[in-house]
Amino acid sequence: xxxxxxxxxxxxxxxxxxxxxxxxxxxxxxxxxxxxxxxxxxxxxxxxxxxxxxxxxxxxxxxxxxxxxxxxxxxxxxxxxxxxxxxxxxxxxxxxxxxxxxxxxxxxxxxxxxxxxxxxxxxxxxxxxxxxxxxxxxxxxxxxxxxxxxxxxxxxxxxxxxxxxxxxxxxxxxxxxxxxxxxxxxxxxxxxxxxxxxx
Length: 199
Known about the structure:
alpha+beta; ten-stranded mixed sheet
């Protein structure tokens, strides 16, 4: 069976965003677009409820035609000598685990500035205090990429990465776990495993 092609080539800046009044409308729309949601909530995948929470909070949007999830993400580079901090693994609230291999990353809220999102990311995922974080705005860059979502199999996603470096105090010298401290108690992730890795 051939892999479904990315909808990227069919996308235009005039594409309409899809609005949903209920989670049932979202679920029906996903199925009508050929997305097998029976695979969601298993293995490393999140649930329809998690996607509904994302959309309701303004962290992600769905493009109507072709079906495409659009998500702005802040990604923070934290250095220690010749190493950078990498989230190697996440543990969900139901104890499932999934590999990550990303620097600290956080979905941005609607209208949120990348500096505010970066600070929130480091506070929520690493448990750092505001005074222990120094963002370096001059390092900012933006990149985009599209791929099939690992969190929501079958749903193609355009990731808009807002990347910036930060200097922080108070992190362990060796690999460590942290607990998610976000405001959303419905978040699927409860723990993060961090490693220092050469770049």
